[in-house]
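Course assignment 3, question 2. Fill in each field.
Student: A.L.
Task: Predict the tertiary structure for the chain below.
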Amino acid sequence: MRILRFGLFSLFLITNLVSAQNILIVDNTELEPSGDNYYTSLQATIDDAQNGDIIHVIPSPNIHGQINIVAKSNLTIIGAGYNAGAGSNLNPNDSRIIDIDIRNSNGIVLKGLYIASPNGINIGDTQDSGSINTFISESVIRNLDLDRADGVTVENCFIYEALTTSSSLSTNISISNSVIRVVNFQQVNNSNLKNNLITGTNLSGTVNNNIFSGNIIAGNSTGFEGPIWGNNNNTFNNNFSTTLISWEDGSNTGSNNIYSAITLEAIFVEDRKSTRLNS
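Answer field:
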């Protein structure tokens, strides 16, 4: 019996050592750190990373280049966070990357990054087998383009130029608690949008097979006269909009939605009580 117990313990230990996560650190500042787990190139770090590894991107005044994540599983990349250095004299920088292209990967996690170029984050392509279960949070994203992706979750982000989800090749998309301030809100399909602020955009184009719940849709423009997004198989529940939307037209369904032609400034009023207390 003692031999059996030793054998089971050894098997457990070996299994955990094989699956253990490595923590890799990327620092492209002038400090030039050294060590087996330190890198100056984010792309080199990703190329060397094993499935399940965690990569920390140190805030830096230097932007990281174009990044490709190909055929990786359960890889986590963590940056400093959105506006991480605001009000800080110690490190006023963020973890800024030109763009990220994800192909044929599973379980990729991106946190606290600033994706600066018009290409932004692109997941999948019509020519590959797609990527599944991608999680993005607490990041600034100039463009989020989901060409072939299944199971993308976006939380607490700022998307500020473009948002596109494929009508046929991307499914199970969830975007919540985020600010969406893109140029044109169009070609958004198969998505669950919850508790977002959608503002400063032109509401137009193809918006199909989505679930809108608890969103504030205000301060936008539209090229249409009358309600928009009619008969597009969308579901609208508990939204507030300053633009006429076809909540229940044709194939659309909805309940408890509110329309009011007021300004965005009228929605977010100054907290005068807090101002007096802090003055």
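Instructor remarks: The chain has a mean pLDDT of 85. The radius of gyration is 22 Å.
Grade: pending
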